[in-house]
Amino acid sequence: MRRYGKNPDEDDIRVRPSRRGSRPRTHTRPKHEDAAEGMVLTVDRGRITCLVEGRTVTAMKARELGRKAAVVGDRVALVGDLSGQKDTLARIVRIEERASVLRRTADDDDPYERVVVANADRLAIVTALADPEPRPRMIDRCLVAAYDGGLEPVLVLTKSDLASPDSLLDTYRALGVPYVVTSREELEDGSAVERVRELLDGHVTAFVGHSGVGKTTLVNALVPEEQRRVTGHVNAVTGRGRHTTVSALALPLADAAPGSWVIDTPGVRSFGLHHVDPSRVIHAFPDLQPGTEECPRGCSHDEPECALDQWVADGHADPARLNSLRRLLATRERREGD
User: Fold this and answer.
1) For a tag site, which of 17, 49, 106, 156 has the least CB within 10 Å?
2) In what order do the strands lie in the sheet with 204-208?
3) Which of 16-25, 122-131, 164-173, 222-231 has the lowest mean pLDDT?
């Protein structure tokens, strides 16, 4: 039975729409020139909390960004509902270029790079002097990651009431890394907090460290109105702490210059450096870098033909600086904890 009349142009002929839609597809995407600027404060299961013009806004990543992920500290452009009211959702349409990036891998054999924090200019490496015991190899790895990512490292040594900081400070004195030493009593009376605040004032500082070293306790003291978590305890058998921070979070530093932020990160048990090119570590040693001009091609700076030995012997740099460089370079070749 004929379904339509003889005239194929009759109005009653139905045209099946294309499964790809009726409009032609285009690769042109809107520029979102009117998008609002924001800063990522925390990321939790696809929901991204941003600070936009003083308001806290919940957002999600736009599909056109593909697999590019937003991390804490990112400067982003947002559209949609920016009121910050309950049950509203904005959309991140652009992630601005990052000034610095703190990255790590799960271990040195893992090629998958994890961006921990973006746009921080300082990295506070928090280490307890006891309970748990300090792990210099972990400190070395954090230093390498800081130098590689464009962050200035700072040492924060806690629990000085349990052990002296002298031997650990002697290890890193040649690097010229700023440091502050705190005790439990000083944390309670606030004197240690003020010293740390002076060190961080005017900076965006990411905090890293093992669980149980007092990192989150210190952050809570610096930002008293934001009590993050109940402080965990140190396992007496393993000497390791229980995680008290489960996701990175940016918090404004109290009683400090505008733009001062602290970023608390989850406690880490390892800090892989698969992503770090050892040749970039030398850039953190400007007093040694001119001496590498006479090095053979592909020099690892830890071999008999390295020109840095003669450079130091001629008095151009402190031998302790060369020892520090070679210790950090060796860190890339061994697993943390060795």
Assistant:
1) 17
2) 179-181, 152-158, 122-128, 204-208, 261-264, 249-252
3) 222-231
Beta carbons of 49 and 70 less than 8 angstroms apart:
no
CA 25 to chain centre: 38
Residue with tokens 């002076």: 198
**Measuring CA to CA, which residue among 328, 295, 329, 333 is closest to residue 136?**
328
For residue 112, count other CB atoms closer than 10 A to its CB.
9
CA angle at 119 for the pair 117 and 122, rounded to the nearest 5°: 80
Residue 302: strand, helix, or coil: coil
- Output the pLDDT for position 5: 55
Angle at which helices 136-149 and 319-331 pack, to 10 degrees?
90
Backbone angles phi, psi at 48, to 5 degrees: -115, 120
Rounded Cα distance, 124 and 122, in Å? 6
Give yes or no for a contact between 240 and 132, defined as CB atoms under 8 angstroms apart: yes
Q: Tell me what percent of the residues of the chain surpass a pLDDT of 90.
A: 46
Residue 153 in tokens: 């490292």
Q: What is the Cβ-side half-sphere exposure of residue 284, based on CA atoms within 13 angstroms?
A: 27
